[in-house]
Amino acid sequence: MKKIVYCTYEIAIRGGEQRILINKANYLASHGYEVHFLTSDQQNRQPAFPLDKRVQMHDCEVNYTLELKQGSYWAKTRNFFRCLRKHKKAMQSILEELHADVVISTFGHEVYLLPQIKASSKRIVELHRSMFGCKSFRRGPLGYFDKYVFTRMHASLKHYDKFVLLTQEDAQNWKGLHNIKVIPNSCAFQHPAPALLENKKVIGVGRYSYEKGFDRLIKAWSIVSRKTKGWELHLIGEGELRNELQKLINELRLHQTAFLDGFSSNIQNEYPDASIFVLSSTNEGFPLSLLEAQAAGLPLISFTCPCGPRDLITDGENGYLARDGDIEGLADRIIDLIEHPEKRKEMGRKAFEHAKNFTEKNVMKKWTDLFDELLKTK
Q1: Backbone angles phi, psi at 119, to 5 degrees
Q2: What is the C-alpha separation between 40 and 83, in angstroms, rounded?
Q3: Is this structure's pTM higher than 0.90?
Q4: Helices 288-295 and 341-354, interaxial angle, to 10°?
Q5: Angle, in degrees to the nearest 10, between helices 214-227 and 327-339
Q6: How much is the pLDDT for 209?
């Protein structure tokens, strides 16, 4: 039985990355693998999504998020290095006990600790963002800290057996590395038939956070709502910008057509109830929501943000691409699909067919093939 260990911050937040990791772990556990999560910041919280009871959890009790939350820049720097030492020591102890075949970093702080730990395991690092997302540094002194952390992370990548990225687009950004492999995300659920696309409902799905760009979608909706009748925009998710987004909706007098629905515990059933899906993010790794929307047979509309939309949307076939930041362009494409129901349904059918390339079975085979390839040389 092959033993796989995923190293990550935590799997307690209801985010796309957590859902993807848990889905992978569940799949592998159900196919004869022994799977473990090795976290640094779980803090005794339960997994955010159902986790197969065969998957085992271990926490290093480092708690970066708590240690780096308060204090001066210098205090945070000092605490960061103290946390690193604690993290490395705990990882060393747990990994020595587990004797894993493959250890996978998810590009947290463990990414530059794993190469320092002596073990016979094969090492993989997988990135759930793009390089653009990794280089979104904060302003001020903390920006210098972010650059330092990224530089250390980047330098460590060559010490891994494989560096797995989500898109061919992003693979072009990582120069000088010869261990890159592209494996996209998968969609964990399928629908028996495309959605009917008859409800006057447009949806966006994701955290209410800056990078999801829902403020841009709300501004585009202010144009759409003036030119169409009876249609509604529903944003499904939760996050720290809820109040700001609601304020924007009120300021633009969209409170009767634009709604913050909050988190859905049954996201699979939200997509077939809609007729158009819109992604307004400033950056992505490989947007899970686009995968899920096309699996339901929704036509897709997205900004050409880095990275992911270009790998999933063929402009004019299964959806539309609008130039990143072009609010009017995004609105025009939404209006076009609202006004042309046959075009909407044809794009939805093509999206439904395209989604078959990203089934869990097809994508996870790429992962198990990679494990087999690496372990042949062990």
Answers
A1: -165, 160
A2: 10
A3: no
A4: 110
A5: 50
A6: 95
Query: What number of other Cβ atoms are within 10 A of residue 200's Cβ?
Result: 14
d(CA 273, CA 165): 32
Band the pLDDT of 93: cuts 50, 70, 90. very high
What is the DSSP code (8-state) at residue 378? -
pLDDT (0 to 100) of residue 250: 98
Which tokens is 265 given?
């515990």
Helix (H) or strand (E) holding 8, with range, is strand 3-8
Angle, in degrees to the nearest 10, between helices 141-156 and 73-98: 20
Give the mean pLDDT of 231-258: 97
Phi-psi region of 368 (alpha: psi -120 to 50; beta: other; left: phi over 0): alpha
| Sheet strands side by side (includes 319-322) | 258-262, 232-236, 201-205, 276-279, 300-303, 319-322
Residues 107-160 pLDDT 10s: 999 998 999 998 889 999 999 988 887 877 777 777 877 888 788 888 899 999
The sign of the torsion formed by the CA atoms of 301, 303, 304, 307 equals negative
Give the burial string for 11-46 (b: 16+ CB within 10 Å, else e): bbebbbbbbbbbbbbbbbbeeebbbbbbbbbbeeee
